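This part of the workshop introduces the protein records we will be handling. A learned vocabulary of local backbone shapes supplies the integers on the structure line. Getting from the letters to the tokens is the skill we practise here. As an example, a complete record with its sequence and its structure tokens follows.
=====
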Amino acid sequence: MVIRQTMSTEDYLEAIALLASEGKPVTVTEISRFLGVKKPSVTHALRKLSAAGLVKHERYRDVTLSIEGAQMAQDVYRRHKALRQFLREILNVAPEVAEEDACQMEHFLSPISLERLAKFLEFTLNCPHGEPEWLKGFSYYFEHGKRDEGLLARCRREDSKKGR
């Protein structure tokens, strides 16, 4: 059986992977709690995921991901982490809002955009000189609704030195 990759499929696979990473058995009850859905919904989803070869689950037993299911879960979580990090550390979105938004956005981010976002975060957040000036200016703009005049003056001085 081929299963279409949907938001729900991705959420279940990601939840199973995250629960498994905690080192405890992954059960229908744990998945139900984690996703905030009823147990019959989890059981129905697991039947589909099992038929598609994405999970291994027998009634009243623990749930494990197949190799393909684990790869899909890892991909979803990678998108989730990158989006959450961008929202929190670049756009300064509150943690709970960033988490919720990342959960929604992760389903629509293409591999190309994910790669670009990951490289942007790596480049920006690993600056050898600390926080980049433009990011400080961006944070100031969010906080005050206007540009930092001191930063603008420094930019203008540098531009005039370069003959711009």
Q: What stands out?
A: The two ends are 62 Å apart (CA to CA). Helices lie at 7-21, 28-35, 39-51, 67-90, 95-105, 111-125, 133-144, 149-161. The chain has a mean pLDDT of 90. The beta strands are 55-57, 63-65.
